[in-house]
Specification:
- The complex is a heterodimer.
- Chain A has one domain: Cytochrome c oxidase-like, subunit I domain (Cytochrome C Oxidase, Chain A).
- Helices cover about 70% and strands about 0% of the residues of chain A.
- Chain A contains 19 helices and no strands.
- Chain B has one domain.
- Chain B is built from nine helices and no strands.
- Classes of the chains: A mainly alpha, B mainly alpha.
- At the A-B interface, helix 10 and helix 19 of A face helix 3, helix 8 and helix 9 of B.
Chain lengths: ~550, ~180
């Protein structure tokens, strides 16, 4: 009874006051910056795609590798992080009853730190001082200010993470015995994973800074690469977890269904946090200096990450089928027709989910030593992460935008804008499939990644790549148009759409849902297990890399 | 029952010759992955055994101390460098390892843990973190090779693994004092 009263009370306040205007301002700032970054990164992507196909000559002051570095960092790190922080903070504010004033301050400070860092990074890249790609592998050496910029980005991420942890702990104290609302559970899990993953890269960057200033002469290349991938792999899985949160929390509500299982969703979060960080090793299958036995064991550690993904796939189909049958669907597959395909808030994340089937399968293939040899460092890999991050994550983010921005700006998604959104989604999908499909195929034919356009002295094999590279360029052009459309839609929803009331979609459990067990809330234990598993994965190879280290490498500037 | 089957499957899997020889080929994996997994297999089988032989457990381990003592002795025994060497050299010691870790360490641990109460649990956590610290110190700084079967670099690696294990236990132990679960539950 008390619970019911409380709920109606909070519902009433939400209805009367809507979103807290200061919290809305915070998220809208993050999202605006995210979409500006998307536009910049997308423009660079277009330039690079056309240049890679041999269709466009870049000016002498801007070369392919600068564009590639900036495109990678802006889209895979900055756009995603800004969106993640904005989106999670709005959800934490919504589900936990507004942000605490100190948390809001933390979030603004985090934004300042990130922007300062990004400014340093972007400046060094455009000055031609840091064409080191987004993986910044040593012994390629960028300007020290590039690495210092990265430190500020990571600091910002940590601040944002602790803001969410503080909010969650505070809410738990005020609501004893209750489960943290699912959305906030995802936020805590996502930020925890990002925090754990960034520990490695922080250590790496702190070694690179003195080396870049010339205070130390050499750097341990293998160690740096390993520490980088502890972060790099985890980061993409964090973005994926952010997307998954919307699938579990918002999508069921949008299609008029219920959540499948609260416990299952929480288990997916916990498993993602525990299992993810050692997965970074499958990016180093071809690296020397790691023993075969270790690589073999890491296949298991990598593949274990597909378990939560498969759980998610199962839960999603169950949600869709139940929702469809509730609407009177008949037969084995009749529920597919009952899904709201015309609603962009569903269509975009749905295409994202469907894309994760081939994208995830490709990922599993690449994790295997022998298959990896075929595609390593080819454009196949680039195609792969354009499907995972470029479709699964990005399209889900776009899908979120259609309800999150109007909810925050107290406006409405009009049918006309919805239609524009559907067009945008289809354009993005077609563009990405053309581009990523071509990348996959031409990668199998041997075209390398991270290499500017060359016909290799008109070699027949290299000339054979041209049709695929054209398809890549066409896809890239469509994608750029889709980016422009998306940025227009985002800002239209922010400032121009008609005033109205948009709800924050939070799915409810089934009426006969089993209660969620208390052990899902034992974060102390999950952190310790994650820490132990990270140690299991990294202690052996890292000690080997340090104890048996070669003298190290002096810096190289390849550009 | 389901748990017992999972435990049995894990147990058999770990004993398969290729799995066992791969796990034992790397010192750290031998001690920090294979051995704990045997203990976990035993823990998974414990409820079934308790259900099957309720009298035995209540008679011999009613306050949890004998069980945890047995667990402690077995664990400390398997931390001796010589024990690991012997497991590789003698079939009989290898079989003893396969039996002792699940049934003399895993089963009594699960049976005793809740019977011990928070003070007993904390004593165990602190003891194990101290032992891990000592082992870390021994393996990292030992001037000589301790195991005939493993190189010195593997020994150092194992030392660092012990350090992280100890740290994990300490973090878990300390967070209990800072995070009062009863405030949340």
């Amino acid at each position: 009874m008390a619970l019911a009263l409380k709920e109606t009370f909070s519902e009433k306040t939400n209805k009367a006051l809507g979103v807290n205007s200061e919290d809305a301002k915070l998220t809208l700032t993050y999202l605006s910056l995210a979409f500006i970054i998307l536009f910049l990164g997308g423009t660079l992507g277009l330039l690079q795609g056309l240049n890679r196909a041999g269709l466009l000559e870049l000016p002498s002051w801007l070369n392919y590798y600068q564009v590639l570095t900036a495109h990678g960092i802006l889209l895979v790190v900055v756009f995603t992080t800004l969106f993640m922080v904005g989106y999670f903070y709005s959800g934490v504010s919504h589900t936990l009853g507004g942000l605490l004033p100190k948390v809001r301050k933390i979030a603004w400070t985090a934004l300042g730190s990130m922007l300062f860092g990004v400014a340093l990074v972007a400046a060094t890249v455009f000055m031609g001082e840091a064409s080191v790609m987004y993986t910044f592998y040593p012994p390629m050496q960028a300007s020290p200010w590039f690495y210092i910029g990265l430190v500020f980005v990571v600091l910002g991420v940590w601040l944002a993470a602790f803001g969410v942890f503080i909010s969650a702990a505070n809410w738990k104290k005020r609501n004893r015995g209750q489960h943290l609302p699912m959305f906030s559970f995802f936020a805590v899990g996502g930020f925890l994973l990002l925090f754990l993953g960034s520990l490695g890269v922080t250590a790496e960057v702190l070694m690179l800074i003195p080396w870049a200033f010339g205070w130390t002469e050499t750097v341990n290349v293998m160690l740096s690469r390993t520490l980088f991938w502890a972060f790099g792999h985890t980061a993409v899985n964090v973005w994926y977890l952010v997307a998954v949160s919307a699938w579990y929390v918002a999508v069921p509500k949008i299609i008029g269904g219920r959540t499948f299982s609260d416990t299952l969703a929480r288990v997916v979060v916990i498993l993602s946090v525990i299992l993810n960080v050692p997965g970074g090793f499958h990016h180093q299958i071809i690296d020397p200096a790691i023993g075969e036995g270790i690589k073999f064991m890491h296949v298991f550690m990598s593949l274990s990450i597909s378990l939560p993904s498969l759980l998610t796939a199962f839960a999603m189909f169950a949600i869709f089928e139940r929702a469809g049958r509730k609407k009177g669907a008949k037969g084995l597959l009749g529920w597919i027709k009952k899904l709201p395909w015309g609603d962009v808030r569903f269509l975009a994340p749905m295409i994202a989910m469907i894309t994760f089937i081939p994208a995830g399968a490709g990922g599993i293939a690449q994790t295997n030593n022998q298959l990896n040899q075929v595609v390593h460092n080819s454009l196949w890999i680039v195609g792969h992460f354009h499907l995972t991050v470029g479709v699964t994550v990005a399209l889900t983010f776009f899908g979120i935008t259609y309800w999150l921005i109007p909810y925050l700006s107290k406006r409405e998604l009009t049918p006309k804008l919805n239609k524009l959104g559907v067009i945008q989604t289809l354009m993005w999908t077609v563009g990405m499939y053309l581009m990523a499909g071509a990348m996959h195929w031409v990668g199998l034919l041997g075209s390398p990644r991270r290499t500017s356009f060359s016909t290799y002295g008109d070699h027949a094999t290299a000339l054979g790549w041209s049709p695929y590279l054209f398809s890549l360029a066409i896809g890239g052009t469509l994608l750029f148009l889709a980016v422009v459309l998306m940025v227009y839609i985002a800002f239209h929803l922010m400032f121009k759409a008609p005033k109205g009331n948009t709800e924050f979609p939070i799915a409810e459990p089934e009426d006969d849902a089993a209660p969620t067990p208390q052990w899902t809330e034992r974060w102390g234990l999950w952190i310790v297990i994650a820490f132990a598993i990270i140690s299991m994965g990294y202690v052996i190879p890292v000690v080997d890399m340090i104890v048996n280290a070669p003298p190290g490498s002096p810096p190289f500037r390849t550009w | 029952m389901k748990q017992a089957i999972y435990g049995l499957v894990l147990y058999v899997f770990l004993m398969l010759p290729p799995v066992a020889s791969l796990a034992e080929s790397i010192m750290t994996v031998h001690m920090h992955m294979q051995m704990p997994l045997f203990v976990i297999a035993g823990m998974l089988m414990a409820p079934y055994l308790k259900q099957r032989f309720p009298g035995f457990f209540s008679k011999w381990n009613h306050n949890g101390v004998p069980g945890i003592l047995l667990f402690f002795i077995i664990m400390v025994y398997w931390m001796l460098p010589r024990a690991m060497d012997e497991a590789l050299a003698y079939q009989s010691v290898e079989i003893f390892k396969f039996i002792s870790l699940p049934f003399l360490a895993g089963v009594p641990l699960r049976d005793s843990w809740n019977k011990l109460g928070s003070i007993g649990q904390n004593v165990i956590l602190v003891s194990f973190s101290i032992i891990s610290g000592l082992m870390a110190w021994l393996y990292i700084f030992s001037p000589t090779q301790l195991c005939n079967n493993y190189l010195k670099v593997e020994q150092i690696t194992l030392g660092w693994a012990f350090l992280f294990l100890g740290l994990s236990i300490i973090i878990y132990f300390v967070q209990q004092f800072f995070v009062d679960q009863s405030q949340y539950e």
